[in-house]
## 1
Amino acid sequence: MSCQDCLNRREFFARSALAAAALAALEACGDGQIGPPLRNTTGGGDPNVPPGPPLTISLASHPELATVGVLVELDRERAVMRTGANSFLGLSRICTHEQCDVEVRSNQLECPCHGSLYAKDGSVIHGPNVSSGPITALRQLDVTIDTAAGTITIA
C-alpha cells in the first residue's frame, strides 16, 4: 500500500491541535448564536420596526381578537392585542436586543435567541441571558380600525 498522502503521527497531532484551537477561538467569538435575521435598514430605518407596507387583516379571520387582552401573532414580525371594544395595541415582534423574531407564548413574548421576555404590552420582563447591556420595550405599531369593513391595519 502506497502512503504518499498519509500523515505521520507528529503531523496528525499538530493538525488536530490546530483544528481544536480554531474551534475554541470560534466558540469564544460569540454567544453561540449565528446571528439574528437580516433586516433591511437602508435609509436609516429602525431595525426594531417591521419593514414594508402596513398589514391589513380581517377581524373575522382571527376570532381570538374578540377577547380583550389576548395577544395574537399576525405575521413573522407583528402581533396585536385587543385592549377595548374598539381599540387595539400593535407590537413589533422584533427583539430590541439583536432583532431576532420573538414568539408569543403564554400571552407573553419570548426571544428564542437569548431568552429576553416581554409582557403582552411589550414592556421588558427580563433581558437577554448574555451580558450585552439593557434592552428596551418592543416597538408599538400604529393600528387603524375600519369598523365598517371589520378590519384593522397595523403599520
Note: The chain is about 15% helix and 30% strand.
## 2
Amino acid sequence: MNDRIVKLFAFIAVSFAVLVGFTSNWTVFDAQNLKNERVNKRPLFNAQKIERGRILAADGTVIARSVAKGSGPSLRYVRDYPEGGTYGHPIGYSFVEFGNSEFEAFHNSELIGDDNEFASIFDQIRGKDPIGNDIRTSIDPEAQQAAFDALGGQPGAVVAIEPDTGAVKALVSEPPYDPNSIPFDLGELNQDPGSPLLNRVTQGQYPPGSTFKLVTAAAALDSGAISLDDTINSPATIEVQGNPLANSDGSDYGDIDVTTALTFSVNTYFGQLGEELGTGTLEEYMTRFGFNAKPQIDLPEGQMSLSGVFDGDTLLTGEDAMDVGRLAIGQERLLATPIQMAEVAATIANGGTLMKPRIWSEVLDADGRSIKTMDPEKQSDVISEETAAQLTEAMTDVVNEGTGTAAALSGVNVAGKTGTAEVPDAERCDGLPNQAWFVGFAPADDPQIAVAATVECTSGQGGTVAAPIAAAVMQALLDE
C-alpha cells in the first residue's frame, strides 16, 4: 500500500478516535457538568415539566418544593421556598429564567430524578414521566434560627459542623435573601450594597485574626518545633521584620508556654513562634487544614472562595515573600472563609482528622424510601491525636479564664479561640474597625459540635461580639 495512503488512513483513524473521545467525554462523562452549567438553559426548560424533589431540613421541615402551575400541555412546576430567607443560604434557588444556585445547583440531578442515567433512559422508553427525589439536609432549624437571632441583623456568618461526620447543622449568612424574590428582584439584589446574595460562610474572605493562632500552635506542636513545656519570652512589644508588633493589652507576659499564649492571645509569643517555624512548615499545616483550596462541601465550586495569603487576587505560596511573624497571628495578607475556620475547630475536636463538610444527609424517592445516605468521608489527617488533645486543653482555658469567657455554657466545658482583626476595607464599614471572630467546640471532652462565628464591621471584639453568638448556636444544638 502506498505510504501516503497509509499515513492518510492513520491520520483519519487518529482524528476519528480523538473526536469520539472528546464527544464521549462531553456528552457522557462530563454530561452532569454540562447539565449544571448555569448558561445551559435546555435542562432548565425541561426541568419545568418535572416535579422537582423537595429539600428538607433535618427534622423534615420543607425548605424547597415545586408547585404545579397550569394543566395538560401547559403544566409546569415553579419552585417555592416556604421558609423564605431562613435557608436562602445555603439552599439557593432554582428558576428557569435565572438558573440554579448553591445546593439547588450542586444536587440538581437528584432533585430532578436524573442522577441515574440508565434508569432515566429506561423510564423514557417505558413512557414513564420522570419525578425528582427529595433530599433531607442535616441543617437543624432551631440552630439555624438561633444563629439568626444571635447575629441580630449584624452582617456576618455562622456555621456549625459535627466534627466526626462533617454534617453541617447550621449555615447562616447575614444579610440573607428570600429565594422567592429572585424572579422579581434579582437585579436589585445584585446591586444591594449589603451583598445579600453572597454566601458569607463559603465566599466571604476575612482576616481571621487570632483564631489563626490555633493553626500556628498546631504546626509548632505537631512538627516538634516546640513542646508544651517550652517557653518564649513575650514582652509587650517586639520588632518583626523591622516593624513593631505589640500585645493587644500592652502586657509584658515574660516567659510563657503555648497554653498561656493561647489563653491570653499573646501576639509577641506567636510572632516569634512564626519566625521560628518558617513559612514552609506553616504553609504545610495550612494546606492540611484546608487552606489554599476551596472547601470540599456540596456546593458549586464557582460559588466558593479560597482561604490563604493573597497579593490582590493572587494566592501566594511559601516561596513568595511574606511576613511569617504576622502571618502566625492571623495578619499579613491572610484571608479566610468562615467554613475554613470552622474546619480548623472541627479538626481539633475530631482528634486531628478533618472530615469533608456535607449539607445533604439522605436522598428519598417519590415514595419516601431512602435510596442513599451520606457516608462521612475523611478529607485529611491534619495533626496527631496528642496535638489535638493539647490544643483542646489550651482552648478550654481560653473559655474558662481567657479571652473567650462569653462563650461559656452552664454545665458544659467549651473549647474555643477568639479573634479580632482590622477590617481591610474601612470605608465599606463606615469607620467601624473590626472583624470579630470566635471558633470552638463543645463539649470539650466529648465534642458534638464545632462552630465558627464572625461579625463584620464592628467596634467590638471577638470575645464580646462573636463568642456569645457561637455559644447560642452550640446551646441550641446541645439542648436537643
Note: The domain at 142-478 is CATH 3.40.710.10 (Beta-lactamase).
## 3
Amino acid sequence: MSTQFRFERPEELAIVARPSLSVAVVISCRDGQEKLDLVLASLSAQSYPSKLLYVYIIDDGSQMAITIPALAPKNTNIIRYKNSPSHWGKTAATNDCVAKLKEDVLWFVDADMVFEPTHLAEHMKWHHDADDYVVLGWKRFVQDWGYTPKDLYHSLSQGEFHNLHKQSWSKDLWEERINRTDDLRKPALEGYRSVVGATFSIMNSQWSKLGGYNRELITGEDTELGWRIFANGLRTVPERNAHSWHLGFSTVEKNKDLIQRHNDPALAQFIPEMHSIRSRYEFDWKVPTYKIFFDVRNLKLSELLEYQTELLALKGTSAHFTLLGPWKVLRNRYSPTTDEYADLREIHSWLKGDERFDFVEIDSDVNLTIDDIIELIEPSSTAHYIFAEGKLKVNFKHLSDYQLLKGEGLTGIVDQEDNRAFVIFGPALARAVSTGGWVYENISQQWGISWLTHERFMQVNVGKRSRIGRFFRFIKREGKKVNSPKQLAIFIKKLAKLVLRKVLRNG
C-alpha cells in the first residue's frame, strides 16, 4: 500500500498504456430497461481493454425481467437477485452478488448513466498507481435525450460525447465541496459526503475489507460508505476527466424532504459528523463521536464524570469509554471502611450497568507504553480515539479540536508527573494498521505526530485569544455547511446557543 502523507496524491496521472487490472462493472437496477440499454451502449464504447471488462447487471426484482440488448459489452451477465422479506433492495442485492466477484476492481454505476469513452480508463490510472484509492467520476445532469443506443454508440465512437447535450446541470453543492477541499486532498471531516453511487470505483480487496454497503440502510448507503472510506484512511479522488451524463434527475432531488426524513435518523446512527442532526435528540448512537481509553487507577468517580461532562457538552456528541484498571482485585474480600480500592470500586459499582462503559483489565503496577495503548484500539467508524491517565487535567474536546486544527495523526500532552493524554485521528490509525509493522512509526511517517507539555498546551489553547480563535474556527467550519435556508437556520440556532452558553458561563 502507498504511504502517501495524509490524503495527498500525485497531481495527475496519465492513462495507463498497457493496463493489467480486471474490472467488474456493477449495475444494480429494478426495471428501467430503456435507460439501461443506453448505459450498456456507452460501456461498449469504452477505451479500456474489453478483455479486462466484465459487466454484471443485478436485477433486483424487476416487474419485467431485464434482458441484455444486442449492443452491450461482450462479457455482460445478468444476475437475478431473489427477493425475500429480509433480502431486497440495492444494498442487499449488491453486497450478496459482489461477494462472489473475483475481478481486481469494482466499478459501481447507476442504471441511468452515459459515459465518455475514456471514463473507465481515467478511473483505472489511479488503481494501477496504488490500491488505496476510491475514484469518483464527474457527472452532469440532463433532462432530455432522444438518441437510440445505436446512435449513441456511433456518436461516442466519433468523439461527440460533449456534443450530446446542449443543456446540462451540475450538482452545485457537490462541486463546491470538491473545490473547497482541494479535490479532497484536504477533506476535513465533511469530505465523505462526496462519495455518491452514480459512478465510483474501488479495489475489490478494499471493498471486502470495508464490508461493502451497510445492510441496515435502504437509501443513503453511498454516504455511509463514504464515511467508512474516510475513517479507514483511503484516498478519495474526484477525477475531473472521467465525464458522464446522468439521464434525468435523481430520486433524492425529486423527493428531497421525504428522503431526508427517512435518511437523517438512519445515517446519523453511523456517521458521527452528522452532529447537527444528532443534536435534535438526546439519544445514544451506534457509532460514537469519540472513543475514550482511560487509565482510571488514580482517578475518582467525580473526576471521571467531570471529564465526561466536558466532552459531551456540545449537544449531539456521544462517547464510548473503555476504563483500564485492575478490576480483578475487586473480587477479593474487603471491608467498606478500610477499602484501599474504594475509588476504583465506586467507579465500577456506578458504571457497570451503563453500556457506554467497558472495563478492561490491566495490572495494578503496569507501566503502559504507547504501543500497549495503541494495541487496545481497533479502528472503526469513529474518527477520534483518546487516551488519558492519572489526574492530568485536560478538556478532551479541546485536545481533539487542536489535533484537527494541526492536521496530525497523533497529538499528545504530558505533565510534570509524566501523566499523558493524546488523541489519534481515526483515518491515520486505520492506514497505519493496514500498512503493517510499527503502528506508531507509521502514524508519524504518514500523518505526523507532536507532543506538548501540559503547560504549553494550556498556553496555546486556554485564554481569551484561544477562545476567540476557537469561536472563529467554529464559524468557519459550520458556515461551510450552509447551502440552503434550512441549513442557514440551523447554523444561526447553533451559533445563538453557543453565545448564550458562554454568556451564562461568564455571568
Note: The chain has a mean pLDDT of 91.
## 4
Amino acid sequence: MSAQNDSLSAFLALLQDLHKEICDLEKKALDALTCAQDEKSYRTLMAERAQRIASLAEAGAELRPDLPEKMRLKAEAELALFSAGARQALNLGSVFYMSALLYPDDHKTGEADNLQKLITRLKRDAQ
C-alpha cells in the first residue's frame, strides 16, 4: 500500500472518529436538556462540541500533504469553513448557533450532517 493510501485511510479514520465525538457530545447535550432539564450542562456540552468543530481545520494536518491535491484542497476548504463557523458561534456565545453547526439549512432528522457528507464524498473520490 502506498504512503498516499495509508495517509488517506488514516485521515478518513480520523475524521470519522472526530465526527463520532461531535455526535456523542451533541447527544449528551440533548439528553442533559431534555431528560435532566439541565440547561447549564447543555450549554457546556454544546460549547465543547463547538470547540471540537473549531479544531477541525487542524485535524490530520500531518496526513494531508500525502493526499491527492484535489482531495486535499476540498477537505481543507470545508474543514476551514466548519472551524470558522464554530469559532464565530463560540465568540458570540450563541448556543442556538452552536446547535446548528454542521447542519444544512434544510436538514431533516436522520439525514447526514455536512461533516459526514464530506467524509462520504472523500471516500467516494478515493475509489
Note: The helical segments are 3-34, 39-54, 69-92, 95-100, 114-126.
